User: Fold these one by one.
Assistant:
Number 1:
Amino acid sequence: MDFDYIDQSDALARLCERLAGSDWVALDTEFIREKSYYPKLCLIQIGTPDWVSCIDPLSVDIGPLLDALYRDELTLVLHAARQDLEIFYHLRGRLPGSLFDTQLAAPLLGLPEQMGYGNFIKARLNIELAKGHARTDWAARPLSDEQLRYAADDVRYLAQAYEPLREELQARGRLEWLQADLARLGDPALYDIQPQDAWRRLKGAAKLRGPALSVLQSLAAWRESQAKRLDRPRKWILQDDALFALARLKLCSVADMQRVRGLPAPLLEKHGAELLQLIAEARTRPPQPLPEFVRPGELSTAQEGAVDVLMGVLRILAADADLHVSVLASRKDLERLVRGERELALLSGWRRSFAGETLLQVLSGERGLQLREGHLQLLNSAADAVTDAQ
């Protein structure tokens, strides 16, 4: 095999010694979570351009490996890091110190946002990755050589792509741009949902008011706590539809609850009285306030035209810098800008200096546009358009 399979503590110790001399490593994981609340870690892949290792966490204590990976001096390179980081967050209660996500970096060099790993490697290395193991039961043992090779390739080529990608970002002055996006990956709220906030993830919660909303919030918190405690998927505890039904109906007894569709008899037998008490208590207190949301009115014809103009400017700026336009802003962002909103990602950090200030200048009339030889051009000032016209 062109990689090491590590399922013994002595081999893991040698790997940790190797990691001690590394500045960075490519990292990926394989996990399952169909039957659990927390993802079950089944394989860890680590690699550099010189070596690749697959570590079996079901066969060996990975504590020493985690110690090595959590060194502040070590940069972990991942692609679409969020799910992998969730695993490490729950293993250690915190995140590793230094991260680099190639999925976040790719759009800063002209590639699409949310690019899958296979497409990223094809675009950067012109290598077609094998498919067919995305739905593998990674908890089953033994893993075949083919499965392990598929997993190893997830870091083998990531390690080959990382340094050229980073160097190109550095050369183009865009490495600093990436830091704000990487910093957001370090927010613990992304990985640890508090039970009292679980209702915010329920589609349709904003349609409820008063006691019904308060009941939904209380039941969602109860379900989240149960799911965490039992390590079971939320919907195995209680389906979303049942949560909403319990919130909307005025139930006075467990017998009333038995008539609610989607409430399993074993659940009511074990927790019926508890749920009834939660519902009764929730109806006596005001709900947590809904997030402020003002439905925007229809844009006027003039405003729609302004959005079209700004979209044209954005495309000019993106094309001149070889950036994918979506990394700067969406049309909805521009609509909000035209409406007068200023709390936008477009108007913070590097996006403001790169594009936001220019768009504000176009909106205020400080800068103009002109069509020359079939190409839209951005002028340094509105006066330039008048001068050219004369």
Note: The chain has a mean pLDDT of 92.
Number 2:
Amino acid sequence: MSLKIRLARAGAKKRPYYRIVVADSRSPRDGRYIEKIGTYDPLLPKDSGDRVKLVEDRVKHWLGVGAQPTDRVLRFLDKAGILKRDARNNPDKAKPGQKRLDREEAKVAAAEGKAKAAAEAVKAAAEAAATPPPEPVVEAPVEAPAEAPAEAAEAEPPATE
């Protein structure tokens, strides 16, 4: 049987309150426990003395028997000066995941594509503004051939041979 010093939730909905208990590791979180050795009220301010209450001599007894505290309880014990907790170091915790990196790469590529298209549009507009527009070719109006007056045409007889 392996013993754990852990939190057992009590209290109402949206109003958590925890008992610090010694229990068999196989028993449910809020189920049967061997002994209650403290309380934890997360709704109180962090600097409040009533936030975490421990019965130190019972905690030391159960640690001597071989009970293992959970990480959260180990933090409480470290703050109380009963047990030393080694600081953990997980440098990869703050790094974004692969999906986010892929999304950011796609976003950057789309932004580059838009910027390139905008640059080409600006370049085309600049070229169009730099070259003067071709001057329109003014053609002289074409006049219809002047016809001889009708009287002169009638005066001349057609030539016969």
Note: The beta strands are 3-12, 15-24, 35-40, 52-54, 68-69.
Number 3:
Amino acid sequence: MIYGLYLSATGVLTNSYRQDVIANNLANSETVGFKRDLALFHERLTESQERRLLPGYSDPLLEMLGGGVLASPTQIDQAQGELEPTGNHLDVAIQGNGYFKVNLNGQARLTRDGRFALDDQGQLVMANANGYRVVDPQGNPIMLNPRLPTTIGEDGQIAQRGTPVAQIGLFDVPDSSRITKEGGNLLSYPEIQQTRSIQGTLRSEFLERANVDPAMELTQLMEAQRQLEANANMIRYQDQTLSRLVNEVGKIG
């Protein structure tokens, strides 16, 4: 293995991965309740360190260079997004920790997307094509009378004509780092039955904006592009050096 080429190649791959993550964040900067992804990396140990070989097996100078950079699993930035007023009485934003739980045909998911609507059966559902039903703290679907005016309190209690009729459930998970995205603003958790009902603050007629700062993401995107180009240039320079070594130096004598 040509060590310099390997180190430069890891730089190209990791920065290409970083560009993809940042581009996805930018594409979802206007998506309700979206949480930005974090592109994380870790240093790879050298071959002798990974195999725990005795000192002297490899060149000490190369050992000091390290084993390159590898991508770590993407993590979700759980920071709060700004709340935006909508005037829609069925729009709800979570202020602080927690998730809404939705269910469709026995498949439970979590979400921070509080755009809700009533279906033809009067059930409270996500206002998108998925049709996932919003559940109460006990995990039951929420039924409302579509002909009556509806208000939602800060504790999630739903009232129609001043009479409490249901409550929107707010849930949390034991380890938020294990949450994964599924698309459609849905989140999955490996042991979804371990989610617990919590008390929190909901804001009616508001939605949570994505916690994406486009200016910061664009700055990081340009930085990743420069680092990718620098590593690609190093590969080209090393290739040219090897070519001269083979085609010119090898002919001497």
Note: Residues 98 and 172 are 5 Å apart (CA to CA).
